[in-house]
Specification:
By secondary structure, this protein is mostly beta strands. It has 2 domains: 31-126, Immunoglobulin-like (Sandwich); 134-331, Jelly Rolls, CATH 2.60.120. It contains 3 helices and 21 strands. The chain has helices spanning 2-21, 165-168, 277-280; strands spanning 31-40, 46-55, 63-69, 79-82, 90-96, 104-113, 116-119, 123-126, 134-138, 147-151, 155-163, 175-181, 190-197, 203-210, 219-222, 235-244, 251-252, 265-267, 275-276, 290-295, 327-331.
């Protein structure tokens, strides 16, 4: 009886082992492609390079090519170019055309096999800029018309002109070499060039004191430090007006009309808040006499921005109440 019981248990175990020993692993070889560094050719063309390194189990691929976009992970649902069927490995290339100037494009090579797309890593290239290599950016009409803005009670304030990021795309990586403005009052009033970045409440990135401005004339101030435009952020170019006595008007403006929200921004609390001048007082329908010169004469790539900031003191002279009552203008 003990022997019979032993065989009843042992035979099923052998049967199970025999089944498991016959199991096969189903291995699949996938197609593979590499994206190689792109070659920028012009303001509208980039040459893309790919390398098919494996055709997969079918020994051929049903499609291959490139896809590209302005986002970092392009697919064939973005822009793409197809070469079709191929039965051998190796390199290939294609010139992407009709691209936007001075714009970064992300590119991936792809292959398709058995209905599945396989992508190489992402490479990128930035098209060249075909516009002017240097120019003044501004909103004012270039004249002063003997007009200026000041605080009724005196003190200090910031003025700025604002450039949206989308408008800066043609100037990405350009260097800001100088600022031009129209100071209408001299000592004890002092002026500093400022650069801010970001939308809404921008961050102060750069401050540089302007010695010996030409009073009642256009003053060009060359920035002593390199500062480069980053087109992924808004750019605000400003002047910090300090030590203004009551009832004088140091910040020059044109004769309008204002490019509201862009050519006429003002802050009276060190950049904690900004308002268009016109919305504080509709009689002040002007743009600041403020311009920035950008240049790409060396074709520099965008480096880290050097920040040169001065300590900003709050303005204790401002009193609660209607803010428009604190701003006034004069036309001689």
């Amino acid at each position: 009886m003990r022997n019979n019981f032993y065989y009843v248990i042992f035979l099923p175990m052998l049967f199970l082992l025999g089944i498991s020993g016959c199991k096969q692993l189903d291995l699949v070889r996938e197609a593979a492609v590499l994206t190689q560094p792109a070659e920028v050719m012009s303001s509208s063309q980039i040459r893309a390079y790919g390398n098919i390194i494996d055709l997969g189990t079918s020994e051929s691929i049903t499609d291959f090519g490139f896809c590209w976009a302005m986002n970092p992970s392009p697919t064939i649902h973005d822009q793409f170019y197809s070469f079709g069927l191929r039965s051998y490995t190796g390199v290939y290339d294609h010139i992407l055309t009709n691209l936007q100037q001075n714009t970064t494009y992300y590119i991936r090579a792809y292959v398709k096999n058995d209905g599945v797309y396989y992508y190489g890593k992402t490479e990128q290239g930035t098209t060249l800029f075909s516009g002017p290599s240097s120019m003044w950016l501004h909103y004012d009409d270039g004249t002063n018309d003997d007009n200026g803005i000041g605080l009724t009670d005196g003190g200090g304030f910031d003025i700025a002109i604002r450039f949206p990021a989308v408008d800066l795309i043609p100037f990405n990586g350009f260097r800001i070499s100088k600022i031009r403005f129209f100071p209408r009052e001299g000592f004890p009033v002092e002026y500093s060039a400022t650069i801010w970045e970001g939308s809404g409440l921008p961050d102060l990135m750069y401050t540089s004191y302007i010695p010996n401005p030409n009073i009642n004339f256009w003053t060009e101030y060359f920035l002593p430090d390199n500062y480069f435009i980053n087109a992924s952020k808004e750019l605000w170019i400003g002047i910090w007006v300090q030590n203004q006595p009551p009832d004088i008007y140091p910040a020059g403006v044109d004769n309008g009309p204002a490019i509201n929200g862009f050519g006429n921004m003002i802050s009276m609390d060190d950049g904690d808040s900004w308002d268009p001048l016109y919305e504080l007082n509709s009689e002040l329908d002007f743009n600041w006499n403020l311009q920035v010169y950008v240049t790409n004469y060396k074709g520099e790539e965008l480096p880290l921005v050097k920040s040169v900031q001065q300590k900003r003191l709050k303005h204790p002279y401002l009193q609660p109440g209607n803010i428009s009552d604190q701003i006034s203008s004069a036309k001689n």
